[in-house]
Automatic annotation (TrEMBL), chain A:
Gene3D superfamilies: DsrEFH-like (3.40.1260.10). It holds the Pfam family DsrE. It comes from Ferrimonas gelatinilytica. The gene is tusC. It comes from the Bacteria. This is Sulfurtransferase complex subunit TusC. Belongs to the DsrF/TusC family. The lineage of its organism: Bacteria, Pseudomonadati, Pseudomonadota, Gammaproteobacteria, Alteromonadales. InterPro entries: DsrEFH-like (IPR027396), Sulphur_relay_DsrE/F-like (IPR003787), Sulphur_relay_TusC/DsrF (IPR017462).
TrEMBL record, chain B:
The lineage of its organism: Bacteria, Pseudomonadati, Pseudomonadota, Gammaproteobacteria, Alteromonadales. It comes from Ferrimonas gelatinilytica. Pfam families: DsrH (PF04077). InterPro entries: DsrEFH-like (IPR027396), Sulphur_relay_TusB/DsrH (IPR007215). PANTHER family: PROTEIN TUSB. This is Sulfurtransferase complex subunit TusB. Transmembrane segments: none annotated.
Length: 118, 96
């Protein structure tokens, strides 16, 4: 059972939730909390390659997703259906992570002791 | 007749939700997607609904999200000046 699952479900840069969620993941991982990360619905846009948030004066947290392995966060799951619905494929993303069907993402969320959504 | 520019700033989860938002909008009415709403213009599933309107996208918001190459056919982009021009061409603006 995972201790904490952080769910990304919003488009990046419209608000700071993506950056806040990533900060939380890295922080909890550095305190050795067993942390999993899920990208669902609009949250998959957090990982799209080629973003330039500076154009709209937004802080660039996207490159920091690459730090997840350094923090030993290896439970990173991307919803397969969410990618398909948006015409995206795993090659379009900044990190290599496991894609899972929606039902398995649900299972991950259900089996986590705590869940925080952003 | 009064013309109105409708702006959307949030992404809808499904085409049905977008259609619901726009149900009071006459066909061909000007519609501007900005901020998080621009992602809908990169998804084929929203194409039919957006095609009913005179739809524009705020380009800097698309560029920021790395989605310029994914904009669906038939959608026009505007910069900030273009946004101002749209507001001048219409009498009213509704942020939906």
């Amino acid at each position: 059972m995972t201790q904490l699952t952080v769910v990304f479900r919003q488009v990046p840069h419209g608000n700071a939730s993506g950056r806040e969620a990533l900060d939380l993941v890295l922080l909890s991982a550095s305190y050795e909390v067993d942390t999993a990360v899920c990208f669902i619905d609009e949250g998959v846009y957090q990982l799209v390659k080629g973003q330039s948030p500076k154009i709209i004066a937004s802080k660039d947290h996207i490159a920091t997703f690459g730090a997840l392995p350094l923090y030993e966060v290896d439970k990173v799951f991307i919803c397969e259906e969410s990618l398909q619905e948006r015409g995206l494929s795993p090659d379009d993303l900044v990190i290599k992570a496991k894609t899972l069907p929606r039902v398995q993402i649900h299972r991950q969320i259900q089996q986590s002791k705590q869940v925080l959504t952003f | 007749m009064t013309t109105t520019l409708t702006t959307l700033t949030a992404a809808c989860a499904t085409p049905a939700q977008l259609a619901h938002h726009l149900r009071h909008l006459p066909p061909g009415a000007p519609l501007l997607l900005l901020q998080d709403a621009v992602v809908m213009a990169t998804q084929p599933r929203f194409e039919t609904i957006l095609a009913r309107f005179d739809a524009y996208l705020l380009l800097p918001d698309v560029e920021a999200r790395g989605l310029v190459s994914r904009i669906q056919k038939g959608l026009k982009t505007v910069d900030y000046y273009g946004f101002v021009e749209l507001t001048l061409q219409t009498q009213n603006q509704i942020a939906w």
